[in-house]
Amino acid sequence: QVQLVESGGGLVQPGGSLRLSCVASGNISRIYHMAWYRQVAGKQRELVARINSGHFTRYVDSVNGRFTISRDDVKNSVYLQMNSLKPEDTAIYYCHCHLEAWHQSGDYWGQGTQVTVSS
What we know:
4-stranded antiparallel sheet, globular, 11 strands
């Protein structure tokens, strides 16, 4: 069974920083792209940042220049370094992976971690 476990969320003041981590475990043979999404109650889940197997990245405009996504293929992990945080970054952040396990490709999600930006 594949599991994605996130950590690193919490409460931070505007202008502060947080680093989210997500570790994928299970019988994983290959991870294609990895991404972070976020969701605010009553709104659709939004793609924040994505990194593919070649380590090419893309970001939603609202976080460009402030957030950095990275991955460690040895540890099956993806990270999101969030700097200059704003109150509008408050959301539940979800890790997503498209990977191959047991010779099948599929999409997997973490349980989510709350990020609150408030003074």
